[in-house]
Amino acid sequence: MGGRKVARDEENAYGFQEFRSALQERRLRLLLAGRSGTGKSATGNSILQRKHFLSRLATTAVTRACATGSCCWASWDVEVLDTPDLFSPEVAQADPGFKERGRCYLLSAPGPHAVLLVTQLGRFTAQDLQAWRGVKALFGAGIAARAVVVFTRREDLDGGSLQQYVRDTDNRALRELVAECGGRCCAFDNRAADGEREAQVRELMGLVEELVRDHGGAPYTNDVYHLAQTLGGLSPEERLRRVAERLAARAPSWSERWPLAGLWRWPKAAPETWCKLGLVALLGALFLLYLLCR
Ligand SMILES: Nc1nc2c(ncn2[C@@H]2O[C@H](COP(=O)(O)OP(=O)(O)O)[C@@H](O)[C@H]2O)c(=O)[nH]1
Ligand SMILES: [Mg+2]
Predict the structure, then answer these.
(1) Distance from the CA of 87 to the center of ligand 2, in angstroms?
(2) What is the DSSP string of 224-279?
(3) Which of 71, 162, 252, 282 has its CA 20 to 30 A from that of 173?
């Protein structure tokens, strides 16, 4: 962060005290997210500058559980959290009790400073988009303000500019994603030699430091992280149980996932729901009339 502009951060909504305590702590938590096989674990290893997370080509997910690794970068203590498949629609079956998602929260508490959304260069698919939606479903839409899009397979750029690639791509969903993440993106060749890898990490950490500055040093937080912070005195099992319970309670229920199912909650229904109900009744009546008049 070099010559940090403290004066600018004094004006930050998070308050000078919080920024100062974050600076004193000098700890950065980075959370790797994205669909399986994009290179999350390999990117984690590049950041840590050593082979810490298991990373390999496979037809099924290699990373099965959340794992952390740490390193020093400039004057920061950096903690990297690698994640298994927590963001695809299959997570509902794979993690029905919200245990692994609860571990993800506890391992990143009191909150990540940045979420690295990992995707492969030139291969941004519907699954990547679903994973991004999964990230927002798990942490809240506000997480976009902390996201950096990390493209792996940088070597495929052949020395070209990433910014130009993102600007010129005909993949509209990708352009929208990068815009939603404030234009923050960088690329990694996780198979590059040491010097080049270090330069890539420097570029990423530059983006992360900017994020940290913009948020007055405070990590991302939400009600689940707040809850996690109040559970300090409990056993690890009890902490996990409470966090998993909160995640289960805030997950959209079946009635929220199916638009018309919301109608069953009619006693609490908002005016828009009554409009929907009226519309459905009208369409039903018209359909009956049509059948009768045939
Ligand atoms: N060529 C190339 N391969 C990569 C890169 N990053 C990751 N990989 C490979 O992609 C495969 C999946 O990587 P992995 O880290 O296990 O993905 P994860 O499931 O998202 O954690 C492995 O074979 C990696 O070596 C990269 O930048 N370039
Ligand atoms: Mg992995």
Answers:
(1) 13
(2) HHHHHHTTTTS-HHHHHHHHHHHHHHHSPPHHHHSGGGGGGGGGG--HHHHHHHHH
(3) 252
pLDDT per residue as tens digits for the range 213-272: 999 999 999 999 999 999 989 999 999 999 999 999 988 755 455 455 445 444 445 556
CA of 41 to the centre of ligand 2 (A): 4
- For 139-157, write each residue's pLDDT tens digit: 999 999 999 999 999 999 9
Ligand nearest to the CA of 189: 1
What residues make up the domain containing 101?
Answer: 6-248
226, 248, 270: which is the final residue of a domain?
248
Q: Apex CA 205: angle with CA 199 and CA 206, to 5°?
A: 90
pTM higher than 0.70:
yes
Residue 38 included in any domain: yes
Local structure of 24: helix, strand or coil: helix
Cis peptide leading into 89, omega within 30 of 0?
no
- Could you please report the per-residue DSSP string of 100-168? HHHHHHHHHTT--SEEEEEEETT---HHHHHHHHHHHHHH-GGGGGGEEEEEE-GGGGTT--HHHHHHH
124 and 225, same domain (yes or no): yes
41 lines ligand 1 (CB under 6 A): yes
| Ligand 2 is an ion; residues with CB less than 5 A from it | 40-41, 63
In a domain, 195, yes or no: yes
Contacts of 115 (CB under 8 A, 6+ apart): 30, 31, 33, 135, 139, 143, 146, 147, 148, 220
Ligand 1 close to Cβ of residue 216 (< 6 A): no
